[in-house]
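User: Can you model how glyceraldehyde-3-phosphate sits in this protein?
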Amino acid sequence: MSLVNTKKMLEMAYKGNYAIGAFNVNNMEIIQGVVQAAEELSSPLILQASMGARKYAGETYLKKLVEAAEAQCSIPIALHLDHGESFEICKNCIDSGFTSVMIDGSSLEYEKNIELTAKVVSYAHKYSVTVEGELGSLSGVEDNVKIPQEKSFYTDPNQVQKFAKQTKVDSLAVAIGTSHGAYKFKHGQNPRLRLDILKEIQAKVPGLPIVLHGASSVIPELVDQINDCGGKIENAKGIPEEELRKAAQMAVCKINVDSDLRLAMTASIRKYFKFNPEKFDPRGYLAEARKQIKNIVKHKIQNVMGCAFKA
Ligand code: G3H
Ligand code: 13P
Ligand code: ZN
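Assistant: Here's the modeled complex, given as structure tokens:
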């Protein structure tokens, strides 16, 4: 098989009331851990690369690593551009073999967002590449830019119908209470999703797959492991798994996870060094990190996305 676009997997997820996990990848061990988990659970998979990932590893390296992983397994895998900022970046990725792109026009004024998104869709669809757009604004850290909570805003359900119709996007990222990074809720704040807004959006655009960014649950055991092994991560809080499960049973068909993978990798490496201070072969700690990533992804596929055995 070769890399697939996200059209069919998102359609099936919509009909089947589950979501596909979209995992941010930055290097070989992360790709291997994620892919091994999805393969063992026969789950469709989206691997996504942010601007930071492409800068860190290089686009060609990432693409070849994903292709190598795909060649060795039997599940459908899509390679997705996460948070494409411009038409040119999306076009480059489409031309170089990405099967799905996100055009993130969420910081633009509504009509400008429509115009840019429609332009990307019309180019992408010529090559059977699927496109994710975004309406609404998430807080948190995204590609090193921090968007404060007071500058974020929920998606307006009254804007989605025209956006979907005029852009012809294949999926839509929305803001319903998630945010990027490990510090999603202030002390005392109730970690909840606005499922009422999601329901309204779904009613306006029935059949359109909805995407949740900033959807890590910031797994407390991983944070504790990091802190027990010399780290200092305070007041980190994520989206409760039950809330994500409910969203996945509604119109949410793609759930983005990056922070939980970072925590998994860091927790396992910190633990390895704490108990093996004399070791210095990178294969030792990177193998542990890969195993931890695999465990976390298996857990998410089974308990959050609900996409096990849907390949
Ligand atoms: O949406 C943000 C992702 O977590 C990517 O972050 O650009 O640091 O890789 P990054
Ligand atoms: P988290 O920071 O919650 O993992 O979100 C990642 C994301 O949305 C990537 O686009
Ligand atoms: Zn995101």
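A couple of observations from the model: The first strand starts at residue 20 and ends at 24. DSSP finds twelve helices and eleven strands in the chain.
User: Helpful, thanks.
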